Amino acid sequence: MINIVVFASGNGSNFKEIYIRTLKKEIKGIIVLLISNNPKSGAVKFAKENNIKFEVINLCRFKNSLDKQYEIVLKKHKTDLILLAGFMKKIPKNIIQIYKNKIMNIHPSLLPKYGGKGFYGSNVHNAVIDSGDSYSGATVHYVNEEYDKGSVIKQEKVKIEPSDNSKTLAEKVLIIEHKIYSEAIKIFCEKRI
Ligand code: GRF
Predict the structure, then answer these.
(1) What CATH number does domain 2-189 carry, 3.40.50.300, 3.40.50.170, 3.40.920.10, 3.60.21.10?
(2) What are the pLDDT digits (tens) for 2-50?
(3) Which of 36, 137, 141, 186 lies deepest, with the highest CB count within 10 Å?
(4) 5: Cβ below 6 Å to ligand 1?
(5) Is 107 a catalytic residue?
(6) Is any atom of ligand 1 closer than 6 Å to the C-beta of 86?
């Protein structure tokens, strides 16, 4: 079994989807821990309700030792795979080096388009709508030192209708996110990547 640690800051819909698929054994891995910077997030709420272990790691708690704290906690849980699922903080270099090709992220656009610093949440979908593109989509990629620049594992597109706005587009893209993130994790856990 692959030990999975999920990092999430927000609603946690990707986290929930992945968790359910591990329970159903569609993904041959086990979520051993949720790490969040935000104790009030939907992700932490879900972890509490479902008895999933979680740790709140943020600057309030670990002012001078944040990077080391991630390392300690990840080692303690014998982490095989790290999943960023709406995590709003940069992953420090020490973690990227130790877990090379073992950290994935989901991004709500067809990278390399609309990626990099500042492209998160509704910023992404607003930019896509303003561009007049016919398609958007989601991308699963490995995480390296640069925002949204690691190699692409999976991508799927979705058609943008003239009636779409950033909110309806975000909803459509989120459905794709849940699907392709689960598929990518599944093949990683089966060592088919
Ligand atoms: C998703 O759109 C994901 O692509 C981005 O952050 C959002 C997280 O959504 N990285 P949720 O918290 O999983 O619902």
Answers:
(1) 3.40.50.170
(2) 999 999 999 999 999 999 999 999 999 999 999 999 999 999 999 999 9
(3) 36
(4) no
(5) yes
(6) yes
